[in-house]
Design a protein that fits this description.
5 strands, 3 helices, HU Protein, Chain A, alpha+beta
Amino acid sequence: MNKSQLIQTLAKRENLTIRTAEEVVNTFFREIEKSLIRGDRVEIRGLGSFKVKQYDSHDGRNPKTGKIIRVKSKKLPFFKVGRELKERVDTI
């Protein structure tokens, strides 16, 4: 399912206009994004949690040339699946 399909499904199930469903979905994702930018953890019970992981700089290798390069430290969003979702998916 992609974002457009999620909007369509929400609109249909909740008898909303496409525009209203789109606003709801966009607000949901935007608030998760804002929380992660602030460094907060976002937990959605039954689904999982989002957090930002800090990765230190390290020496890497250019796969084309084999040359060693310095990879800068970075922060990346990380999603950890919740136990309930793992169990539901595993029973399929």
